[in-house]
Amino acid sequence: MVIKNIDNRTIIAKFAVNGFNIHPKAVELILKSGYNVDRIISEARSLDSFIIMPEDVSEILKRLKDEEKARARKAEKKQQKARAKKEVGNVRILKDITGRSTCRGTVEDFVAYFNSRYEKLYSILKPRVKAIPIASLSRIKAETVEVIGFVDNVREISEKKAFFDLEDKTGRVRVYAEGKLKDVAMELLGDEVVGVVGKLRGKTIIADRIIFPEIPMNGSKVKKDFRIVFISDTHFGSNKFLRKEWEKFVKWINCESGNDDLNRLAESVRYIFIAGDIVDGIGIYPGQDKELEIIDIYEQYEFAAEQLEKIRDEVKIILSPGNHDAVRQAEPQPSLPKEFRDLFPKNVIHVGNPAYVEVEGVKVLVYHGRSIDDVISKINRLSYEKPQEALIELLKRRHLSPIYGERSPIAPESEDYLVIDEIPDVLHSGHVHTYGTAFYRGVLVVNSSTWQAQTEFQKKVNLNPTPGNVAVYQPGGTLHRLRFCS
Predict the structure, then answer these.
(1) Residue of 269, 289, 292, 264 whose CA lies nearest to 279
(2) Domains with residue ranges and CATH for the chain
């Protein structure tokens, strides 16, 4: 524990109260160490000495450091055991909120959450931006300055000029962007963290560059001899569920399509990732009850389990929830509750949303994709017809849900699990019911389509799904698109 607001006299007084005199150099050692004085006094009671010398304090500090290291080793072993428990065959769950949520919704939780977001993204930007605290801008004479902070209050001034505010832990500054940078500024999303390099003019900055956290180039990949299938939004329980198209998919994955080439492709599939909205749920949108074939949530999951049980046992299915599923709405979401998990066959591996999952050395970041709605609504050039472009924006910003307080509710966990701090080989999402894939800086971006026909609600909001489209990927190799719906 770090000593705060303590001086030599306080240390001497504390030792005196406990019956000790202390050498001045011993006091200096304590001040430099950063350890809690009461803890050191507690250790000193075991000494057969009236005067605490520097060598006594040195020995105590060494003992405390050794204890800290031992605790750290014990904690690491505990974490290793926890990780080992999460390994199922060749599937490793690297990161998942399930069983780790500490959120209570207090003010302190929100402060911790945004501090975590800032610190994670700051550490990503730091090697590329020599940032100074914003509060220090008024005291420096340099013409060019570099800062990092949260984006807020983006505004267009004219056809060629915009401004936004940037805030760090020390203060706030207004940034003006002109010319081509104006277009970049107008696509900034509130609550994301960026770096700015520019000229200091009084209390404002004229931007020369706006720097996103951005993912680095993902290096060359070894070609694997297996394939991964990516699907999403099955919506079991809806009367719009495309049963015939689903049966075609099941026949194909079970190597029963009647086509030799397709059967050989299916034989190479070892994993299926499902990115949420397993069932249609209840009360998700207005008038949903009129479009339900199964009106009981438990029975919806029973039906879902029956459908996944049709898939051959040797294929591992990694299943993540979405906003239609029976988990909390706020992201990150834990995996399905045990009463529903127990319904599914043993080859189904349940994870939260989002989750980092590694299969035979291939890292997949599976995220349902609710924030795609927010990103498309904020950036005019994006559309639901090309959802992969919205996912690329998330990779640039290194955050799965950059905007706080819009359509995507976010739980204020003490750690921001939505920061993309580890670069995946694949980013897999769904949610918007349209299909799109792309490679971005070596990362495969997949937005899966759906197994549900257009609902009345989707008609009202002009959302046209592309159902029954399936991405089949050989890591380091080819990407196939199979269409099970005409």
Answers:
(1) 292
(2) 8-68 (1.10.8.800), 134-211 (2.40.50.1010), 227-483 (3.60.21.50)
